[in-house]
Design brief:
The complex is a heterodimer. Chain A is of the alpha/beta class. Chain A contains 14 helices and 11 strands. In chain A, the strands form 2 sheets. Chain A has a 9-stranded mixed beta sheet, sandwiched between helices. Chain A has a two-stranded antiparallel ribbon with strand order 5-6. In chain A, a hairpin with a 4-residue loop joins strand 10 and strand 11. In chain A, helix 1 crosses helix 3, helix 4 packs across helix 14 and helix 7 crosses helix 11. The radius of gyration of chain A is 19 Å and the shape is globular. Chain B contains 1 helix and 8 strands; from the N terminus they run H-E-E-E-E-E-E-E-E. The longest helix of chain B is centred in the N-terminal third of the chain and has 13 residues. The chains are: A alpha/beta, B mainly beta. Chains A and B meet through helix 5, helix 6 and strand 5 of A and helix 1, strand 4, strand 5 and strand 6 of B. Bound molecules: zinc ion. Zinc ion binds next to loops of chain B.
Chain lengths: 385, 131
């Protein structure tokens, strides 16, 4: 297997982008990434997108996007793993490059969510839950994460304020990200008093509905060394794990086993321990998710995610900064684009290009992207050479 | 999604809580599966879930999906039945303030969803606090 490096990154602004279609969003991010890499041709395209059919009435987007990017007849394919579709696109592209099948591959993610009503968007998102065992009974995604939150608070003494602090911290970071959808400061009181969605989660505990796209260009490490225009970011870990998609069928509903399994593999591939990671971008689709992810990644012990957040571990100036981009909460969550946008932020930080939100002295970052209530998880570890 | 074909196919589990018990290791699957993830056996015995249990987590859904709009807010929980099997369902006849982990519930047959585009009204199980 060949080592793989990231040589280009690009993304659109995240937000309600009524003038941009799904294909335009993807092509803008892809061209941005190709310009950054300095390439005018790619050998293959992988697009992560959760549900172009339900959100935009369009399937068959692998070919559509390759064509509108001016790259047909290259192979283009869409991959789907709910909200982890972006991470899956990168992992799939890595398999192409590492195996020697292709050299220069564009891995992108896109979701166009505001062409449909809020009710239709909620329905589309809920298709990532078990239709027979969860959605049939009226469960929503906030509802499933709320069930995790109730259990976590009961089992470990996690406080309502700890959940809110995740949102407050991520908004503090997102305020400094020009691509972010919600660049405003919020307070713990505002989160706790915002409109109730699924108890104990309120609207300010939830990531928003967002349009957006992100893309990265990958190639063999040896080829990247010859191009050598910008700091080279090597992919040292790439892992994916599955779990039962119905929350109640798991042995422990507070434990994100797919994330723990994927992280264990990624750490092994990279030859590192959690303590050797400098910072992370994680899947904070709901505030409780970030708390559970910290535990599953082994950053803190089981049950300590809320306390660690309260004590500032994950703040930008903390020992282990999490979601310097603003996370899904503030930056926005165009579901298929999220996993690639996480990679975009890690590369930006590792190159030292993050401006006001730049973390000091970071060499190694981790991205954790999750589907549904944790039925899938993708973990990548990146290092700057 | 709710169509007459889906409703008909799921009737044994929704109306009668028919599960499957692995003939080799005894693990219970609801809804039934074709292979046991624990021992990989493909042989199952019919098994009906017990009708009492305990709430192990709960929420109140205030923003409801299509088909549930008129009911919101409604209580929902993960219920551990007396044999240890866990199910997710609504908790009916229950004020949100009454929800707590450890609440004893009984399973009852109720209407689940209003008729959607297909015109099918869906029925199934809900948990009700013991009186
Ligand atoms: Zn078995």
């Amino acid at each position: 297997m060949r080592d793989v490096a990231i040589i280009g990154i690009g993304m659109t602004d995240f937000g309600e982008l009524w003038n941009d279609s799904l294909r335009d969003l993807f092509v803008k991010a892809a061209l941005d990434a190709m310009d950054d890499a300095g390439v005018d041709h790619i050998d293959g395209l992988v697009a992560g997108c959760m549900s172009p059919g339900l959100f935009a009435g369009q399937e068959h987007i692998g070919s559509l996007l390759a064509d509108y990017l001016g790259q047909a007849p290259i192979p283009g394919v869409r991959v789907e793993s709910a909200c982890a579709s972006g991470g899956m696109a990168l992992r799939t592209g890595i398999a192409y490059v590492a195996s020697g099948m292709h050299d220069v591959v564009l891995c992108g993610g896109v979701e166009k969510m505001t062409d449909v009503s809020g009710a239709q968007a909620t329905y589309a998102l809920a298709t990532a839950a078990d239709q027979d065992a969860e959605a049939f009974h009226g469960a929503t995604f906030p509802g499933l994460y709320a069930l995790m939150a109730t259990a976590h608070m009961h089992k470990y003494g996690t406080r309502r304020e700890d959940l809110a602090q995740v949102a407050v911290k991520n908004h503090d970071n997102g305020m400094l990200n020009p691509h972010a959808q919600y660049r405003m400061k919020i307070t713990v009181d505002q989160v706790i008093n915002s409109v109730k969605v699924a108890d104990p989660l309120n609207i300010l505990d939830c990531s928003p509905i967002t349009d957006g796209a992100a893309a990265v260009i990958i190639c063999p490490l040896e080829m990247a060394k010859k191009l050598k225009k910008k700091p080279i970011v090597k992919i040292t870990g790439s892992a994916h794990a599955t779990d039962t998609i119905a929350l109640h069928q798991r042995a422990d509903m507070t434990w994100l086993k797919s994330t723990a399994d994927a992280a264990a593999q990624a750490y092994k591939q990279a030859g590192v321990k959690p303590s050797q990671i400098d910072f992370a971008e994680v899947h904070d689709c709901f505030t409780i998710a970030e708390i559970c992810v910290l535990e599953a990644l082994g950053v803190v012990k089981k049950g300590q995610g809320g306390k660690a957040t309260r004590e500032g571990l994950t703040a930008r100036d903390g020992k282990f900064p999490v979601n310097p981009s603003g996370g899904l909460k503030s930056k926005g969550h165009p579901v298929g684009a999220t996993g690639i946008a996480q990679i975009h932020e890690i590369v930006t930080q590792l190159r030292g290009d993050a401006g006001k939100r730049q973390l000091k002295g970071v060499k190694r970052g981790l991205a954790q992207n999750m589907g549904g209530s944790g039925g899938s998880a993708v973990v990548h570890i990146l290092e700057v050479l | 999604m709710l169509t007459p074909a889906i409703v008909r196919r799921n009737t044994p589990q929704r109306y009668r809580m028919e599960a499957a018990k692995c003939a080799k290791c005894g693990k219970v699957f609801f809804p039934p599966r074709l292979i046991c993830d624990a021992c990989k056996s493909r042989t199952f015995k019919p098994y009906t879930l017990p009708q009492e249990g305990t709430v192990v987590s709960h929420t109140v859904i205030r923003t409801a999906p299509r088909g549930f709009g008129d009911e919101a807010p409604y209580c929902m929980g993960i219920v551990e039945l007396t044999d240890g099997t866990r199910i997710l369902c609504q908790i009916a006849d229950c004020e949100p303030e009454r929800l707590e982990i450890g609440l004893k519930v009984a399973i009852e047959f109720r209407k689940i969803q209003e008729a959607g585009e297909s015109g099918v009204i869906a029925y199934g199980y809900k948990a009700v606090p013991e009186r």
